[in-house]
Amino acid sequence: xxxxxxxxxxxxCSTVEEDDLSNGRAPDVHGGGFDMTDLISTxxxxxxxxxxxxxxxxxxxxxxxxxxxxxxxxxxxxSTAHRMLASLxxxxxxxxxxxxxxxxxxxxxxxxxxxxxxxxxxxxxxLPSLTDLYESTKEAAQFVVRRGDSGLVVExxxxxxxxxxxxxxxxxxxxxxxxxxxxxxAFSAPLRQNPPRLEGHTAVTxxxxxxxREELARVQRYGVAFDRGEWxxxxxxxxxxxxxxxxxxxxxxxxxxxxxxxxPDAIAPRVRRVADIASRELYTERLAGRGLAG
Length: 294
Description:
about 290 residues, seven-stranded antiparallel beta sheet, disordered C terminus, 11 helices, Beta-Lactamase, globular, single chain, alpha+beta, three-stranded antiparallel beta sheet
């Protein structure tokens, strides 16, 4: 019989300096502590209500909007809309992709720490997919979102044979040397450009930025990532992305288990298929009006 575990943790905060945004580009990200007052200025145009209006507008447009659309919808000057979008990007709620501002996995992290009965339960939505994956592999299945420079397990299903692995199947994990982490890195432009510190955990951990870039390019190309003992000696994993509306990455589904029991190349098609099913179900929930966070 499979056991279910939900593992929650605090959320990261960071901020950026506001650049001159008159050329339409999002600012460069710098380190620092995020203060909510960055989003709520003394200007009436950048009140908390306006922030919520912008986020809801994202939702109504499938999670992707242009600067001009935001400015028109909120009746803000373009420069003010730029600053608000920059602050949302700093907070990890928005990313810039091909000229469009899109909702990011930061919203999933926020949803993950809200009780399921209040949040609409994103982990609850992927639980059936995790259960199916566990039943087909008999190995631990996880749903992982990004928390700053780490991955955070927010839902998991495992059997008795995985009980000994529980300390490694809960909480946080590094991004550069785990299958789920590589998915989160590969499909996040800011993280790809400025990856976290590449700490060596085993003899086969990727610690070269060039090798990591090559690895992430393969993840993007094939839609699946592998960890072959790179984080923990003797442990392997396979992961695939889960997408929300507007092709927004909401997390990664992965299978983790010991060498011998888990053959990554053999189970990769199943992991990717289950992640695709979860993505379609999230999209269906969005169309039904439930949304990703209720």
